[in-house]
Amino acid sequence: MVHTWPVTLRDRELVLRPLQRRDRSAFEALRRRNEDWLRPWDATDPEHGRVRPPFATLRRWTEKQAREGTSLPLAIVVDGRLGGQVTASPILYGPQHSAVLGYWVDQHLAGRGIAPRAAALVIDHLFAEMGMHRVEVTVRPENTASLRVVQKLGLRPEGLRRRAIHVDGDWRDHLVFALTAEEVMTDHTGRGVLDRLLTQNPPDTRPA
Predict the structure, then answer these.
(1) pLDDT value at position 47?
(2) Alpha-carbon Rg of the chain, whole angstroms?
(3) What CA–CA distance (Å, rounded) separates 154 from 131?
(4) Tell me, what's the pLDDT at 101?
(5) Which of 60, 63, 76, 133 satisfies CB 3.0 to 4.6 Å to 97 for a cystine?
(6) Concatenated DSSP letters for the chain?
(7) What sections of the sequence does the record tag as coiled-coil (predicted)?
(8) How many CA atoms lie within 13 Å of 93's alpha carbon, on the beta-carbon side?
(9) How much is the pLDDT for 179?
(10) Is the model's pTM score more than 0.85?
(11) Distance (Å, rounded) from C-alpha 127 to C-alpha 184?
(12) How far is CA 194 from CA 35, 54, 106, 191, in A?
C-alpha cells in the first residue's frame, strides 16, 4: 500500500480533490456564507481563539502534510462547485495505521447525502489504497447532522471523551465512532463502505 498525492476521488457528480490556487475566491466565499452554520462545530485554539489562516497559508500547510502522508485534505466539489471539505488527519503509521476523519459541507447541501458519500469515499481510499487499519470520527453530542452521517456509514460507537477538543471557545465532550478494515467487505473496486452506504441509503435523485 502506497500513499500518493495528489489524489482525486469520484462518485457521479461528487468529486473530492485537493484545493487549488484558483479556489481561493470560492473557498473564502463559502466559509463566509457558512460562518454561523459551522461556528458550533469548528475547532478553536484555547490560547488564540478562532483564528483562520489566509487561504494561501492554509493551502501551503495542507499540501505539505499531504505530501508527507500525514494528512489527506480534500475539497468537496458537487456539480463543479466547491461545497465543503473532508480531511483525514492525523494519519498514523507504524503499529497503529489509523486516521481521524473530519468533514463539513455547505448548509445548502445538507440533507442531500453529500457528507456521508464523501466520507465513505475517503474511508475506502484509506483502507484499500493506503492500508489503514482503523478510521475514527469524533462528534459533539449536540451535532445531530454529523451523528446521522456516522450512523449511515455504519461506524461503531465507542463511548464519550470528556472535554476532549476545544471547539467554539471551550473544551467540549465528543462521542467517538470507529471502523476497522476487518469490518468492511471491500471488493475489487475498493468501495466497501460506499457500496454499503448506497445500498442502505439510495442517493437522492432530485435535481439540485
Answers:
(1) 85
(2) 16
(3) 20
(4) 98
(5) 133
(6) ----SS--EEETTEEEE---GGGHHHHHHHHHHTHHHHGGG-B-BTTTBS----HHHHHHHHHHHHHHTS-EEEEEEETTEEEEEEEEEEEE-TTT-EEEEEEEE-GGGTTTTHHHHHHHHHHHHHHHTT--SEEEEEE-TT-HHHHHHHHHHTPEEEEEEEEEEEETTEEEEEEEEEEEGGGS---TTS-HHHHHHHHHSPPP-S--
(7) none
(8) 9
(9) 98
(10) yes
(11) 9
(12) 29, 33, 21, 5
The three cell numbers of residue 11 are 462518485
Domain residue ranges of the chain, discontinuous segments joined by +: 9-200
Q: Supply 112's cell numbers.
A: 442531500
- Provide the CATH number for the domain formed by 9-200 in this structure: 3.40.630.30
Residues in the chain with pLDDT < 70? 1, 49, 203-208
Task: Give the residue from 202, 68, 191, 19 showing the smallest Cα distance to 122.
Answer: 191
